[in-house]
Amino acid sequence: MQRIVIVIVSMIFITSSQVRAKPVTVDLAVGESYVYQLKTGEEKKITVLACEDVRDEFRNAVRQATVTVDVDGVQAVIPVAQYTMPRVVNGVKLDAPVIKAYLSNSGSPAIWDLAPDADVRLRCWDPDQPLLEPGTFCYPVKQRWFASQTQMANEPTFVDGGEDPRNKSIYYHYALDFGGYDQMVRVVAATDGDVVSVAGVIDENLPPEGQEIVQPRYDVIYLRDDRGWYYRYSHFAAILPQIKIGYRVKMGEWIGILGKEGASGGWSHLHFGIHGTQGDEKGLIEAYPFAVEAYLNEHPNSVLAVARPHQLVKVGDAVFLNGSNSICDNSEIVAYEWEFHDGTKATGPIVKRVYKQAGVYSEILKVKDNRGQVDVDFAVVHVLDGDNTLTRLPPSIHAAYFPTESIQIDDTVYFKARAFRVTGGREEWDFGDGQTGTTCSKDEFAAISHYYEKPGLYIVTVKRTSQNGTTAMAQLKVFVEDAKR
User: pTM for this structure?
Assistant: First the structure.
């Protein structure tokens, strides 16, 4: 790994125009300061001390990034996006959606509209303040948390075989991709808003800033909310007939069915992105924290396991799997349990692994809170053969299931998988209850169904081995309820 550090500069300054009494977005250079005014009137000076990033040796892609800040004499390291939530530092809630390092080899460097001289974008809230005004944002897909693979918050794309070392232009996924079962999952409007583009048609009265953002396409809907933010929903299998130009949608209203149309890469998912147009909010708006907050508002007191983003390493490299970004609402996580593909186990929020063979691995993280609630997520690790990287590129695989919630004993559960960058072989399924199955996807998803005879948490594993001897695996979590409840 290469480690790049932006050196601290000595001069810091504050301008009166930077003082605001509301949540703000601000672009700063290392050494610059910003004064955030709390609702109590108290002022907090936030100074950027350093930005740091870690890159992989194959694509030179940023895999981790941090920002060191000083808030009135208290220093802290803030992770940059990648499935992290804002954290409170000396009385101010902060997050960092992006640093300049991501723009150096991004395929879309202008998407953020980061100020030319800035090194980082920060967002600030009062410590007890919701991230968005309550009642103005909901979770946009009607399925369980992390029901399938995702690509979010600056994570390099990977599900469709995107981790190719020959490709040096990185698609840091700046929006949120929610993987799901093709043609079955309902997509709802995350906010109240007006339809400004749908199915390739655009509102002729769209203001100039909207025309810069909206890119009409047959599988895409754009909404504009009362904040002036633009929301893009992409890859619909179907769009509901009432969604027309000028139609006013309500938050939570059903607008379409998740699919894989358009430039989806062939895997089924909702691409959900937000753009601002005015002042400090201009450019991409990082939405992962908003999605988490919305999901918890709809599922209070939940525990949410988070073992993402995926990683790209070489055979023999040390890999640190991280579950510390897991979340619990009104409780405390008391246990982190890992179960690895080779049958070994470990405990703790962060664990170390070394892989001896190329392939795509999925490792199970189970978290438990102090109320006994459990959730599961999967740490995906792409391992490349350092000596024969191109001849032994492993396949990639996307798996999904439906329904993902309220599954009861004897209910039929539908599964799909599609392998990418693969020659030969079949998908081998293990449903977690002693039953197995086989499918063979070829340029399309292959489907299989199953039912469970007992309640419980089941880990479903699907694998496919290519002719080059490498194997990809994906896993799903299936919660089966007792019908008597």
Answer: 0.94
